[in-house]
Write a structure and sequence with these properties.
Number of strands: 8
GO cellular component, one term: cytoplasm
Organism: Zosterops hypoxanthus
Largest sheet: 8 strands, mixed
Pfam families: RhoGEF (PF00621), SOS1_NGEF_PH (PF22697)
Helix content: 40-55%
GO molecular function, one term: guanyl-nucleotide exchange factor activity
InterPro entries: DBL_dom_sf (IPR035899), DH_dom (IPR000219), GDS_CDC24_CS (IPR001331), PH-like_dom_sf (IPR011993), PH_domain (IPR001849), RhoGEF_Guanine_NuclExch_SF (IPR051336), SOS1_NGEF_PH (IPR055251)
Order of helices and strands: HHHHHHHHEEHEEEEEEH
Structural class: alpha+beta
CATH class of the largest domain: Mainly Alpha
Radius of gyration: 24 Å
CATH topology of the largest domain: Dbl Homology Domain, Chain A
Length: 291
């Protein structure tokens, strides 16, 4: 309120930088929606649990869908941060901060929702430590899994919005199940043997996005944004339709490798994960899609 509503204050209009005009939604994202949800709904439900903490997990399970509003907030965060870098040091913000007598500037508060969604899992883990095999423990475990799932989908979607060069519409590829970086070797039946030999030795670094309908191979690029932290983008290289894909779970000589092949092994992709656990997680997700 000390910032957003001041953007409509006629006395401060002359202090608002031009880059900020009509950009309230870019800067604040869906913060009003998050505030409304907590103020009108979630807080009241949690307060009911003060006397009966074993009911707390149900609040999270019941509100699983509502908590997805954080995904929208986090997806907008890069746009918000870019705008803040442009206008953050303006007199308008200094004036608002002075009036509010805040030690921290607005960007510290805009980070709060991102921190909040990750804090829930810590709080639920703490509660689980105190409730071994008592009433509500199973529900607490389910609530924790729910929150971890939300954090994972927020994290995945943050990577997904950084994909560049894909011609189609990413939203038509089904649910994003997994994403991560791998060493990849390719072996094509077509083309010169020379290509095949070269491809044998040096792996490509590829960032894979597994959707229910498609597997995307991208190349990760890190760009420095005007002296600030590096932002990653993923330039699209190729895709495989999941309906025509086969998988070989073990590759001789390396238990971290598996194969994905296309069109009856016309194209073979040897994929090396950073650990056996990671490889197994991916294989089980791919299996689920294929079956």
């Amino acid at each position: 309120q000390g910032y957003a509503s001041e953007m409509d204050n006629p006395n401060l209009v002359h202090l608002i930088p031009s880059a900020l005009q009509n950009k309230t939604e870019v800067l604040f994202g869906n913060l009003p929606e998050i505030y409304y949800f907590h103020n009108r709904i979630f807080l009241k439900e949690i307060e009911h649990c003060i006397e009966n903490p074993e009911l707390l997990a149900r609040c999270f399970l019941k509100r699983k869908e509502d908590l997805q509003i954080y995904e929208k907030y986090c997806q907008n965060k890069p746009r918000s941060e870019a705008l803040w870098r442009q206008c953050g040091d303006s007199i308008f913000f200094q004036e608002c901060q002075r009036k509010l007598d805040h030690k921290l500037s607005l960007d510290a508060y805009l980070l709060k929702p991102v921190q909040r969604i990750t804090k829930y899992q810590l709080l639920l883990k703490e509660m689980l430590k105190c409730s071994k095999n008592s009433e509500g423990t199973a529900e607490l475990e389910e609530a924790l899994a729910t929150v971890l799932d939300i954090i994972k989908s927020v994290n995945d979607s943050m990577h997904q919005i950084a994909i560049t060069g894909y011609e189609g519409d990413v939203s038509e590829l089904g649910k994003l199940l997994m994403q991560g970086s791998f060493n990849v070797w390719t072996d094509h039946k077509k083309g010169h043997n020379k290509v095949k030999d070269l491809a044998r030795f040096k792996p490509m670094q590829r960032h894979l996005f597994l959707y229910t309908k498609m597997l995307l191979f991208c190349k990760k690029r890190e760009e420095n944004t005007d002296g600030h932290e590096k932002t990653a983008s993923y330039s699209f290289k190729n895709s495989l339709k999941m309906s025509t894909v086969g998988i070989t779970e073990n590759v001789k000589g390396d238990n971290k490798k598996f194969e994905i092949w296309y069109n009856g092994r016309e194209e073979v992709y040897i994929i090396q994960a950073s650990s056996v656990e990671l490889k197994n997680t991916w294989i089980s997700e791919i299996r689920k899609v294929l079956t």
